[in-house]
Design a protein that fits this description.
This protein is an alpha+beta fold. The chain has three domains: about 240 residues, no CATH class; about 210 residues, no CATH class; about 210 residues, no CATH class. The chain is built from 31 helices and 17 strands. Strands 3-4-9-10-12-11 form a six-stranded mixed beta sheet. The protein has a five-stranded antiparallel beta sheet with strand order 7-6-5-8-13, with no helix packed on it. Strands 1-2 form a two-stranded antiparallel sheet. Strand 11 and strand 12 form a beta hairpin. Helix 23 runs parallel beside helix 27. The protein is globular and about 85 Å long. InterPro entries: AN11006-like.
Length: about 850
C-alpha cells in the first residue's frame, strides 16, 4: 500500500467501515417535507439572467441531533446509499439501527398518515432494523355531540390548549345547540393500527411518545379524572383545572364502564396484537406542579394504569408567600394487561377495537360530564383512591382526624408480615376477590405494609434496610420484582393470582432470610452484567454469591433443612452455572438430591407455604436440577475418542431405516455412523417438540430439554447443546430478561470452537456451520458480542466451504432444523460475517461432495 497503490473504502476492515457509518449518520428527524425543504442558509445572490433561466427547486437537508439540539447539516449523507450494493446494505443497517427517528403529531390524522407513509416507503427490510422512534404527541381532536346524536365538526387543539383548527361555526353564534352540557367525543385515527401493524415487522423497536402539554395532558394520561365541562366552558378552556382542590366527590357508586383510557390503551392493544415483546411503547412526560400536589399527581397517574419507570422531581425555590413549584419528568409505560384474547380478535376495524373496551358509541370515544338530568355536584366515575386522598386532605385542613385506608399501590399484593420500618406505615386490608373464599377459611387477612419510598425502577418496596446488605442490592431486588418475576411466573405457568402469591412469598423470605436476599440479588445481577462495562456488577455478583455459599454452609452445619434452604440452593445452581463453575455441577446435583430426601421427599418441598410456593418451588427445583444435569451430561471430554482418531463411532451401516424421518443432514450423519441410537432418539424427540410447538405462540411456548447418558461422543454432545439453544430461541425462554444465564451463547460458542475433532473432520463441515449459526445467534442479540459471533461464523467457512452470500449458507442450514422465525436473525448474522471477506470462490475448498446428497 502506498501513494501509487491506494486502498479503497471497501478494503478497510468491516469494523472500521461500521465506525465510519456511525460517525456519518447522526440522529435523524422524520418531519414533513415543508419543514425539511427550507434551506436554513441564506441563498446566494444571483443575477437576473440566472434567475430567469433557472427552475426554482428546494433541496432537502437532513436534520441531525447534537447535544439535544436539532441542527441542520449542509449536505445529506443519504446519497451514500446509492454507491453500491455492499455499501448500501452496511450503511442502511447502521442508519436504521443506531439512530432515533423523530416525528411530531400536531395536525392529527395528517401527521399519523405521514408516519405511516414513511414506514411503507422505507420497505420491509429497513423496518426490521428500526430500533427507536420518538413521537412528539401534541394533538387532540374533539367534537360535540349535537342534539341529533351525531358528532359536530371537529376542533383541533394542542395539549396545552392552543387552537390549531377551529370550525367556522365556532366563531359565531350558531343556531344549532352546542351546549357544554352535552357529550363530547374524541376522534381516534384509524391509521394508528396500520402503523403498529408495520412496526410488528421490527425485531426490537422502542416507540417513545412525548406529550408536552399542560391542562389537556391529563385528558390523555388520566381520562377518567378529566372533567370535560368544568366551568361551563368548551373543552380547552383555561377554566378546566385538574388540581385536587377543584374536584368534587359524592357518595355515588363508581361506574367502571365510564372509566376510559383512550390512546394509550389502544396502543397497548395494537402492540400486543402485532408486535408483542418486539415493540416497546414508552411515554416521556414533563409536568409543572405545585410541590404539595406532586405526590397526589403521581398517585393519580399510577392508579390510572401506568407503570412509572423513572420519576425525577426538580423543586425550584419559591418567592416569598408563593407555593414552591416542581418540575416533574416521568418515564412510564402502560401497565401490561391480559390482552392476548383481545389481540387475537384482529378485525382491522377501529370500531371493533373500541368495543373491546366496552365503549358503546360507534367510532368515537365519549367522556361524560354532568348533564341536566344529573346532580351537578356528582362528577362522573373516578378512581376511588383519588377520592379517598382528597377527602383525607380536606379533613386534615379542617383539623379532623384522617382515616387511614389502604393504598392500592402498583404492587398491592406484596404483603410482608413482620417487616417493620421507621415511619408509620399504611395498612393494606384489601383482598383479591378471587381469594375471598380461601381468605375466609384461613381467617383474618394478613396486613401488608406498603412503604411509599421509590427505589430502583420507581416501584414501592420496603428496601430501606436492604441497601446496607451489599452492593447493588436495592437495584437487583427492584429489577427482579419489576422485570424478572413476571417472566419466572409465566415459565411456571402461573396466573395473575398465583403470580401475586409467589411474589408475596419471595419478598417475605427476602425480608427475613439473607440467604434468599443475596441469592435473588446475585441471580438478577447475572442477567445485568452484560450492561455494565465498569466491573461493578461482576464484583457485586461475587459478593452476593459468597454470602449465599456461606449461609448455605451454616444452615447445613446446623442440619436445618427447610424450604428456604432448598430455594437458596435453587438460586445458587444457575449462578454457579453462569459463572462457569461447571466442576460444581455434580456436587450441586448430589447435594440437592440429599436435601430433598431429608426434607421428606419431593412432595414435601414447598409445604411450608403451599399457596405461595408448593408446586412453584417443586417446579423451580426440577428446572435448576435439570439445568445442572444437562451441563454435566454435555461436558466435553478431552480424552481420545474414536471420532478424534478418525474412526466412525458406530459400526456401518447403522440406523439407516431408523433415521428416515429425520432431516437430511442428520440422516447422512446416521448413515455414516456418527450418531448412536440414543442420539437419533433425542433428535427425533426434538423434531416432535418442534411440530407440537407450532400450535402455541412463541411467547407462551415452553422450551425443550432432554435427558441423556454420559457415553455420548463430543459431536453428539455438541448437537444436543445446539438443539437446546434452538429450543430456547423458539420459546418464551428466548425473550426472558435472564436469557443470558440459561442461553450462554458466548460461552457455548467458545466451547464449540475448541472441539478439535469436530472441526477437523471434512464430513462434518455442514453440521458445524449449522451448529455455529444456531449457537452464536440468540434471539436476544445483546447477550453475545458481535465480534465473537462473527469470528465463529467465519471460522466455520474459511478455507472449508465456498460461501459468498446468504444464498450459499441457507441450503446448508435447511438440511438440519431450520425455522423461518429465526431466518431474519440468521441472515443479519451471516451478512455481518461475510461483509468484507475476500471472494470466497477463489479460495474456498469444495467439500460438498464428501457428504451424500450434498
Amino acid at each position: 500500500m502506498g501513494i501509487d497503490n491506494p486502498i479503497g473504502f471497501l478494503d478497510l476492515p468491516a469494523e472500521l467501515r461500521l465506525q465510519v457509518y456511525k460517525i456519518l449518520f447522526g440522529q435523524c428527524s422524520l418531519s414533513s417535507a415543508s419543514r425539511l425543504s427550507a434551506d436554513p442558509r441564506k441563498s446566494e445572490k444571483n443575477s437576473p439572467e440566472d434567475r430567469e433561466n433557472t427552475t426554482k427547486t428546494k433541496r432537502l437537508f437532513a436534520q441531525t441531533k447534537s447535544f439535544g439540539v436539532h441542527v441542520y447539516s449542509g449536505c445529506s449523507p443519504l446519497p451514500l446509499f446509492l454507491s453500491n450494493k455492499q455499501v448500501y446494505l452496511e450503511s442502511a443497517y447502521v442508519f436504521y439501527t443506531h439512530n432515533t427517528f423523530y416525528a411530531s403529531i400536531e395536525l392529527g390524522e395528517k401527521d399519523w398518515q405521514t408516519i405511516y407513509k414513511w414506514l411503507v416507503m422505507i420497505g420491509p427490510q429497513n423496518r426490521k432494523n428500526l430500533r427507536k422512534i420518538d413521537i412528539h404527541y401534541d394533538s387532540l381532536e374533539l367534537a360535540p355531540i349535537l342534539t341529533n346524536g351525531k358528532p359536530g365538526k371537529s376542533w383541533l387543539t394542542s395539549l396545552g390548549g392552543e387552537d390549531r383548527y377551529r370550525p367556522g361555526d365556532w366563531c359565531k353564534r350558531v343556531t344549532v345547540e352546542l351546549s357544554p352540557t352535552w357529550e363530547w367525543v374524541e376522534f381516534i385515527s384509524p391509521t394508528i393500527e396500520k402503523i403498529f401493524k408495520l412496526l410488528g415487522e421490527c425485531r426490537n423497536v422502542t416507540v417513545t411518545f412525548q406529550p408536552w402539554g399542560y391542562e389537556l395532558l391529563d385528558r390523555v394520561l388520566c381520562p377518567e379524572l378529566y372533567e370535560a365541562e368544568k366551568g361551563n366552558r368548551y373543552p380547552n378552556s383555561e377554566w378546566f383545572k385538574m388540581t385536587y382542590e377543584n374536584l368534587l366527590y359524592s357518595n355515588d357508586s363508581y361506574d367502571m364502564e365510564d372509566i376510559l383510557s383512550l390512546l394509550p390503551d389502544l396502543m397497548e392493544l395494537y402492540r400486543t396484537r402485532y408486535g408483542g415483546d418486539s415493540i416497546s411503547v414508552l411515554w416521556h412526560v414533563m409536568l409543572f406542579l405545585e410541590t404539595e400536589e406532586t405526590s397526589w399527581r403521581r398517585s393519580m397517574i399510577e392508579r390510572s394504569g401506568w407503570d412509572i419507570l423513572q420519576f425525577e422531581c426538580r423543586t425550584s425555590p419559591p418567592p416569598n408567600d408563593v407555593p414552591s413549584n416542581d418540575v416533574i419528568i416521568i418515564d412510564m409505560k402502560k401497565e401490561s394487561k391480559n390482552l392476548q384474547e383481545f389481540a387475537a380478535q384482529s378485525t382491522g376495524d377501529l370500531r371493533a377495537d373500541i368495543r373491546l373496551f366496552q365503549v358503546q358509541l360507534t367510532m368515537f370515544i365519549p367522556y361524560r360530564g354532568p348533564s341536566k338530568n344529573k346532580d351537578t355536584n356528582a362528577r362522573r366515575a373516578i378512581n376511588a383512591f383519588v377520592a379517598v386522598e382528597a377527602s383525607s386532605r380536606r379533613r386534615k385542613r379542617r383539623g379532623g382526624e384522617v382515616e387511614h385506608r389502604g393504598r392500592q399501590g402498583t404492587l398491592q399484593w406484596l404483603q410482608i408480615p413482620g417487616c417493620h420500618v421507621s415511619k408509620k406505615a399504611t395498612i393494606d386490608e384489601r383482598k383479591d376477590y378471587r381469594e375471598d373464599n380461601r381468605q375466609e377459611r384461613r381467617g383474618p387477612s394478613t396486613h401488608g405494609v406498603v412503604v411509599s419510598r421509590p427505589v430502583g425502577a420507581g416501584r414501592f418496596y420496603p428496601f430501606d434496610g436492604f441497601v446496607s446488605k451489599g452492593p447493588l442490592t436495592a437495584r437487583a431486588l427492584s429489577y427482579y420484582f419489576d422485570i424478572l418475576l413476571p417472566h419466572d411466573a409465566k415459565a411456571l405457568g402461573l396466573g395473575e393470582v398465583g403470580t401475586r402469591s409467589f411474589g408475596r412469598g419471595l419478598l417475605s423470605w427476602a425480608s427475613k432470610h439473607d440467604l434468599i436476599l443475596h441469592g435473588l440479588s446475585a441471580f438478577t445481577l447475572c442477567s445485568l452484567e452484560c450492561q455494565d462495562v465498569t466491573g461493578n456488577t461482576s464484583r457485586a455478583i461475587m459478593f452476593h454469591r459468597n454470602k449465599v455459599l456461606l449461609d448455605l454452609h451454616i444452615r447445613l452445619s446446623r442440619q436445618g433443612v427447610d424450604d428456604v434452604l432448598i430455594q437458596g440452593m435453587a438460586l445458587l445452581i444457575p449462578i454457579d452455572d453462569y459463572l462457569g463453575h461447571y466442576e460444581f455441577g455434580p456436587v450441586h446435583l448430589k447435594g440437592m438430591r440429599e436435601v430433598v430426601k431429608l426434607r421428606g421427599g419431593f412432595d414435601a418441598v414447598g409445604s411450608s407455604d403451599e399457596n405461595a410456593f408448593g408446586r412453584n418451588l417443586r417446579m423451580s427445583t426440577l428446572v435448576t436440577s435439570s439445568l445442572a444435569e444437562f451441563h454435566v451430561q454435555t461436558t466435553i471430554r478431552n480424552d481420545p475418542t474414536p471420532l478424534a482418531n478418525g474412526e466412525f463411532p458406530h459400526p456401518l451401516p447403522v440406523w439407516e431405516e431408523t433415521a428416515l424421518d429425520l432431516p437430511p443432514g442428520f440422516r447422512d450423519l446416521a448413515r455414516c455412523g456418527y450418531l448412536s441410537e440414543e442420539t437419533i432418539g433425542i433428535v427425533r424427540d426434538f423434531s416432535d417438540w418442534l411440530i407440537r410447538s407450532k400450535e402455541s405462540k412463541p411467547t407462551a411456548r415452553q422450551t425443550w430439554r432432554c435427558s441423556m447418558s454420559r457415553d455420548l461422543n463430543n459431536l453428539e454432545k455438541c448437537i444436543c447443546v445446539t438443539l437446546a439453544c434452538l429450543a430456547d430461541d423458539l420459546s418464551a425462554m428466548g425473550t426472558h430478561p435472564a436469557a443470558l444465564i440459561f442461553r450462554k451463547p458466548q460461552r457455548r460458542a467458545e466451547v464449540l470452537a475448541a472441539v478439535a475433532e469436530v472441526w477437523n473432520d471434512p464430513l462434518l463441515i455442514k453440521c458445524v456451520i449449522w451448529m455455529c449459526t444456531v449457537i452464536a445467534t440468540p434471539q436476544n442479540p445483546q447477550i453475545i458480542s458481535r465480534d465473537k459471533q462473527r469470528q465463529l461464523l467465519r471460522k466455520s467457512i474459511l478455507q472449508r466451504y465456498s460461501a459468498s452470500n446468504w444464498n450459499d449458507i441457507q441450503p446448508v442450514l435447511q438440511r438440519f432444523f431450520y425455522d423461518s422465525s429465526r431466518e431474519n436473525d440468521w441472515i443479519d448474522a451471516w451478512n455481518m460475517a461475510l461483509a468484507g471477506l475476500p471472494d470466497m470462490g477463489t479460495r474456498g475448498i469444495a467439500v460438498a461432495q464428501h457428504l451424500p446428497n450434498a
